[in-house]
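Hi C.,

You asked whether I'd gotten around to modeling the 113-residue construct. I have! Everything is below, sequence then structure, no commentary in between.
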Amino acid sequence: QVQLVESGGGLVQPGGSLRLSCAASGIIFSINAMYWYRQAPGKQRELVATIASDGTTNYADSMKGRFTISRDNAKNTVYLQMNSLKPEDTAVYYCRSNRPLAWGQGTQVTVSS
């Protein structure tokens, strides 16, 4: 059974940092591209960042230079380091695998003073 479990969300002040983790089980993690998405209240879910099985990364334009996606195949875990957080980054953050397609339950990130 595929399971993706996100952690690391919370409340942070503007300009602060958070590191999200997504632990995967039930998949062959090393061959999977992994994705981080987010969904703000009243908005559609949007792609934040991707990391291919070879470590190639891509980011949405608004996250470039602030967010870093990485993976540890030995731990079956993908990370999202978020720096210089803004109130508009407030959302539920989800990770996703593609082989098979699966979603985690999400972790709330709130950026507020």
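If it helps when you're writing up: The first strand starts at residue 3 and ends at 7.

Thanks,
B.
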